[in-house]
Amino acid sequence: MKKKERRANLIKQIVCYRNHIKTLQDETITAETTVRELLKELQGICPHKHVREENEYVAGGYLHKAKYTDIQICTVCEKEVSRVVTYGGFE
Fold first, then answer.
1. Where in this chain does the entry annotate a coiled-coil region (predicted)?
2. Which of 18, 26, 81, 85 has its CA 20 to 30 A from that of 11?
């Protein structure tokens, strides 16, 4: 009888944990949505004074020139402030 009771209790706990996990997942989705909305709002009012630069390079080939991309991203709101693409290589 103890095994059946223990098994029943374990099943109840598993169901309880599953429900708790589902609730946490729903709360996480709600929080992520709220953060996205606030980030969009921030991007609209941010002065973009603090930026970081990222560089991308795509090698050229026999028929294609190399592509250099300089990107400036605001460190506060993560919005792309500017993107400059230049091509180099064969002339």
1. 7-41
2. 26
Q: What span, in angstroms and rounded, lies between the C-alpha atoms of 14 and 32?
A: 27
Residues 6+ apart with CB under 8 A from 80: 71, 72, 73
Looking at residue 51, the DSSP 8-state letter turns out to be: E
Query: 16 and 3 in one domain?
Result: yes
What pLDDT, in 10s, does the model give residues 1-31? Answer: 688 888 889 999 999 999 999 999 999 999 9
- With the CA atoms of 23, 28, 33 and 39 taken in that order, what torsion angle do they form, in degrees rounded to the nearest 10? 160
Number of domains the chain contains? 2
The whole-angstrom separation of Cα 75 and Cα 47 is 11
